[in-house]
Amino acid sequence: MTTKDKILDEALTLFAKNGYDGTGVEQIAEKVGIKAPSLYKHFKGKEDILNALIDNSEARYEEYFGSEQHLRKLPESREEFIRVTMERILFTMHDPMIRKIRRFLVQEQFRNDRLADITTRHQLEGVQKMYAKIIEGMMEMGLFVKDNPALLANELTAQVVLLIAKADRQPQYEQEITESIERHIRHFCDVYMRV
Amino acid sequence: MTTKDKILDEALTLFAKNGYDGTGVEQIAEKVGIKAPSLYKHFKGKEDILNALIDNSEARYEEYFGSEQHLRKLPESREEFIRVTMERILFTMHDPMIRKIRRFLVQEQFRNDRLADITTRHQLEGVQKMYAKIIEGMMEMGLFVKDNPALLANELTAQVVLLIAKADRQPQYEQEITESIERHIRHFCDVYMRV
DNA sequence: TATTATAGCTAAAGCTTATTAGCCTGTCAA
DNA sequence: TTGACAGGCTAATAAGCTTTAGCTATAATA
């Protein structure tokens, strides 16, 4: 891991924790193990670090939501659908990098148009499109009732996104949040799955 | 409006726009029309202003979600339910004070436990409880199918909350967001209302 | 009327912050 | 071997920040 990458990594950690304005370049440097002025050998300034992080968030978005990996093997039963969906949600909740990006975006979403756009893609369009495809595939397999897949994907994901956001700010409720999410998914299956 | 109130008002406006750390006491003072040191005749410091704002957000929560005003006259038809729900949502979206509190909370939710708690109440529990009661009442009237009202309320409100958040950061999409919300509510009625 | 409190002001302290200038060392290529 | 460069360092600058001290005028009160 190069120093440049280490800077980005620690900067993201700190921005996620204390926000961009709440984080000093000195703090970042200290975590990296160098002195603040040395940062300027790698980046033009604090804002340059921010922009690099935005680029990374954008790339991460493509990588995670853009791939069609999740389509390779569609769930073939109600229980399998619930299981893989819960697995994906728990992964999203706990993966350190995704967590940091999520917290970072939530706090900085109003800083500029690009951040606003990425936040919407992460929070709405990304998950929505991903599940729309899965649900569409499962409709063709006769597992879901025929309906607008995009609309159903929204019904499924909106609550999950909100509950994950709650877990981010109040980790002490994680247990019950996870249960709420599973309850919601089961309810979703009750309503939209073919018996 | 006293100076103290004016300070709180302008502080909230600025915190909502640029965040707490992104706002200087000098800016607040300037908006109020006084010099920065004069602020200290009214508040012990910047953090004292923040705490007063948190108190206000808490009070505003009670006032808006705690009241049972919305229960006095329950909608008596599908179209009336859609109409009053859309009205309430549009009000929530546009009311300047509620908007500011929403933006403020979103950005500062990680600053301390109290802010995290209030954010959850505003974003989840408040709306959810309010609609749970409305839906429960309408179930008794035979308008909704019998089900768990809290669960249905979640299905209804989660998407609305997410879409309002999107409108906050990307007001240029307000038109389509409003349409999405109405579409979602109609879908909700299709699924859960008695014909 | 005398006095006291309120609420503004200027000046400035004192700290933090981002950034720059300039130096030093080790590495690698000519 | 020499020279260039990458990447670290210290010292310092310059600006910004919050907050305090102390002055003044007005309004309320005894």
Care to describe what's here?
Two copies of one chain form a homodimer. With 195 residues, chain A is mainly alpha-helical. Chain A has two domains: 1-55, Arc Repressor Mutant, subunit A (Orthogonal Bundle); 65-192, Tetracycline Repressor, domain 2, CATH 1.10.357. Chain A has helices spanning 3-18, 25-32, 36-39, 46-66, 78-94, 96-108, 113-140, 149-169, 174-192. The longest helix of chain A has 28 residues, at 113-140. The N and C termini of chain A lie far apart (51 Å). The interface between A and B is medium-sized, with 31 and 32 residues. Chain A binds a DNA duplex (30 and 30 nucleotides) through helix 3.
* N→C terminal distance of chain A: 51 Å
Percentage of helical residues of chain A?
over 70%
Please state the CA-atom Rg of chain A, rounded to the nearest Å.
19 Å
Number of helices of chain A: 9
SSE pattern of chain A, N- to C-terminal: HHHHHHHHH
Provide the structure class of chain A.
Answer: mainly alpha
Oligomeric description of these chains:
homodimer
| CATH top level class name of the largest domain in chain A | Mainly Alpha
**CATH domain fold name of the largest domain in chain A:** Tetracycline Repressor, domain 2
- Residue runs with pLDDT of under 50 for 5 or more positions of chain A: none
Give the percentage of residues in beta strands of chain A.
Answer: under 5%
Largest interface: A-B, 31 and 32 residues
CATH architecture of the largest domain in chain A: Orthogonal Bundle
Please give the largest β-sheet of chain A.
none
Mean model confidence by pLDDT of chain A = 96
Shape of chain A: elongated
Number of domains of chain A: 2
How many β strands of chain A by DSSP? 0
